[in-house]
Amino acid sequence: MEFMSPFAIVLRVVIQFTPVWMAMAVLLTISFLFKRRLGLYGFIIETGTGFAGVSILSFWLFTAIFAASVAPFDPLGQIVSMKDALPGAIEANSGLPYLLGGDKLARDVFSRMVFGSRIVLIIAPLATFLALSVGIMLGLPAGYFGKRIDAFLSFLANLILAFPIILLFYLLVSPGILETPIPYALAGFFFVFPILLLFTLFWSGYRAHPKQLALRLVLTLLAGGWLFATFVFDSDPFHILRVSPSTLNIFAAVALASGPGIFRIVRSLTLDIKTREYVQAAQTRGETPWFIMLWEILPNARGPLIVDACLRIGYTTILIGALGYFGLGMPPESPDWGTAIKESSRLMRAFVHPALPPALAMMSFVLGLNLLADALREQSLKD
Amino acid sequence: MVEPILDIRNLSISFSTRAVEIPAVMDFSCQVMPGEAMGLVGESGCGKSTVALAILRDLARIGRITSGSIHFNGRDMAKLSEHELRQIRGSEIAMVYQEPMASLNPTMKIGRQLTEVLFIHERVTKEQAYGRALDMVKAVKLPDPERIMGSYPHQLSGGQQQRIVIAMALLAKPKLLILDEPTTALDVTVEAGIVELVKELGKQFGTSMLFISHNLGLILETCDRVTVMYSGEAVESGPIRDVFGSVRHPYTQGLFRSMPLLGTNRNSRPVIPIPGQLPLPHERPKGCHFGPRCSHFVDGVCNVSTVAMRSIDEANTHHSRCMRVEEIDWHAQPEAATQTEATGAGPVLLNVKGLKKYYKAAASELFGGREARTVKAVEEVSFTAREAETLAIVGESGCGKSTLAKVLLGLETATEGTARYDETDIQSDPIERRDTKLISSIQMIFQNPFDTLNPSYSVGSQIIRTLERFGIGTSREERSEMMLNLLDLVKLPRAFATRMPRQLSGGQKQRIGVARAFAGHPRMIIADEPMSALDVSVQAAITELLTTIQRQSRTTMVLISHDLSLVRYMADRIIVMYLGHIVEQGTAEQIFAPPYHPYTEALLSAIPLTDSLAKKRKIVLEGEIPSALSPPSGCPFQTRCHMKSKVSGSLCEQVVPPMRDLKEGHAMKCHLPSEILDQMTPVIS
Fold this sequence. Notes:
The complex is a heterodimer of chains A (383) and B (685).
Chain A: H1 6-16, H2 18-33, H3 39-46, H4 48-65, H5 67-70, E1 89-90, E2 97-98, H6 109-145, H7 147-162, H8 165-173, H9 175-179, H10 182-205, H11 210-232, H12 245-273, H13 277-284, H14 289-297, H15 302-325, H16 337-345, H17 356-382
Antiparallel strand pairs in A: 1-2
Chain B: E1 6-16, E2 21-32, E3 37-41, H1 48-55, E4 63-72, E5 75-76, H2 82-88, E6 93-96, H3 100-103, H4 110-121, H5 126-139, H6 145-149, H7 158-171, E7 176-180, H8 188-205, E8 208-213, H9 216-222, E9 225-230, E10 233-239, H10 240-245, H11 250-257, E11 310-311, E12 319-320, E13 348-361, E14 373-386, E15 390-394, H12 401-409, E16 416-421, E17 424-425, H13 436-441, E18 442-445, H14 459-469, H15 476-489, H16 506-518, E19 524-528, H17 536-553, E20 556-561, H18 564-570, E21 573-578, E22 581-587, H19 588-592, H20 598-606, H21 651-654, E23 659-663, E24 666-669, H22 674-678
Parallel strand pairs in B: 3-8, 3-9, 6-7, 7-8, 15-20, 15-21, 18-19, 19-20
Antiparallel strand pairs in B: 1-2, 1-4, 4-5, 9-10, 10-12, 11-12, 13-14, 13-16, 16-17, 21-22, 22-24, 23-24
Helix pairs in contact in B: 4-5, 4-7, 5-7, 7-8, 14-15, 16-17
């Protein structure tokens, strides 16, 4: 077997990412030219942390978009001669190298890392958005109405936080539960929240404009219908996604793990903002409570919430990987980083190279999110 | 020749921002002699706090002194090292800030914070430090000093906290005490006490003082000399009698004219607000900064080159920065002094009888309280309000005026009594059950302009939302047009419709608040301290606006305030409240003339006057406002009343006084016999 020199490997990796570099250059140049007009984003780009965070995240975003051009091989394709190949091994037939080596099932580690970004960049933010909807829909009334509702919801949140979450994950995974409709019911329950959030948002805010209200409600119902069809019933009408019960469980797991934390944040922000005079002004106008919560209070809570969401996407990425150890999560051949690490962990003593690229990829992604969250926090303090 | 303790010469300070360097203070000069109190007057944004921070060299990283010098006790402050500065701060120069709660560490006991000052700056033993701290707590006239030394800041009231901060500042016997708006956050009678204290301590310890404020009356009472600042420059300075008695700068003259003169009301001597706006720091006009707003402006003279500060009397004490100081006739009457007819009041709109609001303060909601204590926020209140009339509710914090407003608006429901609004009883209708017509008919103008608008939406969209909510207008274009008309009504440019609240100044935001309140054509407006957060000249403008709109639309205004000079200016009838009770009510003339209820007398005496010729009887109340959880037995005011001795026996302590009718409409709750009441002399003459 022939190998490339280490220098050649590095050079070739950098060249493979060319579409990504070009896209990043375009994005960052436009950002700098128009930074005055881009509001919050403009401020973030100017700070060192913000710029670093945006660069890293845009790198992975464009990698996910251009994955097919960047990766030389199919992430699931196996070439038997390349099993456990060391980095730089050149494949005999096509002459193309496995740039970062091959894993125990003879797949290209580099291509898997590149395609894994697609899954991570879709699932982690979506799952976090789900948890965010749950937290917001429960946190706002708890903070605004107070008293009994608050006592009940806080008690529930504390209960979930106190419960050993790993036990819950094992339960979700056990074959007896997988055969029952419980995973579907649980996921269905959580997926109601984003739909409810959008529904209440439009219903309370567009009452005076019946036509716009109708349009928005119909769109929400359609989106909600697609969501349910794809995720809960695994019958995507557009045939883009296939969602197995174990993938579905990821969403349920993330909602349970992250929901109470977001609930707490939203509740305390609501308690603070509720005392402001513009909320009182809205009350003297006779606005309904949900209007005040969603249209007066929530927009002013966006600073800390955005920061928290950024960090949470990072935690969710790690959680998806960790879930793999329970058999909960993506199917074992999925190239997403957490699963890739888990799959290569068994032979790590002998062959360390399959585990490193996805680990470094995940590390850089979470770092990018943390840097962005830091820059956002600095900005929200100034506001 | 005595050296000044603080000598600021031609000081210029600039702040560096993302885009450009912005000058905050330009060519500012000021001398403070030992033992003297210098006042620094100006409105928000004029740079007075920046000067104070620069004296202590406490400018943030982005602020720099670009030219000029500050000499303290002969030493150039700019040349001192950090170590030397630390020795000066706190021990030779001390500072008292506006918010007492923010100046005290909430986790440390008061005694520890006080002794900390001594440990840092002097070598003392613990006993010595404790003893000196205790003496200082007594010197600031706080009752029960030992208990206070052992309490935490949150256990004290605002006035007590500020006294502690002053004690901390004076402990190390500084040569210069800088006070930056020390009483703005406090109630009127508490403010009077603090001002008395500061004057006495200044004389007692011989400390020089730099008193920064926007309240001209306070400066008149406490200071020997005054410097007036406008847009980063000192425009006039001199001894108090000279500056207040013979004004020599158009801005200072404009300030005096924009304040209500006690003894007159809005019909006989309307206030004349200073036209225009404060220039933005990077858009200052060439030449005189006040030029564009000055009624004596002459093109070619005033806007040619920078105007220097010149002395205008032989003794070289009175200075002014005006090009035309000798040419202007300073005694001429202002042009816009038109008198208006008083609007006749219409039929009774609001009739309140025996209204009570009690709150239950239980220990815990979920698990049941033991003995639920009641806060008696409003006790048996009865009054009427007519159409096109202005009714003022006066009182300090804890008197129940905000609770009364909430009951009228529907944010709370009354415990007992009736409030009849135009044929409907509204006291038990919470806002959720009121119909849109009633809601749009009673609206409110809020106190804090910085919080009254939602920061996430543009100003125009917030007015349009109000119109939408009240069902006014049928299409988006119609509502847009109405919104623009409302902006015209409050004299704001139409371009403001797309601006965000943070791009507006306090006064402009308050105008939007007024526009929003009048959007639904209300018949009754409740204005909750609408001016207290605004500057003097802006107050004048908003006051003018409100009186004009009210005259045109014949709206009833319920004005809640603690500012008696504003109340005298605007109100037809006044209600004075104390701890939930109405202690006196009547027309404005009746309230401001004897016979007074003792509390009204004290409130009147606490108003800082700007007229240097008027004389005022001084009545300073002892103690603090009692807590509403445990009100005093009998008359609520008896714990602080200075006339209690004139009532025989212990009637005041046992029986709540009944409401006595004195003349037509004038009533008060007091046990004082009629002879004593007839003998009362006016507080202000």
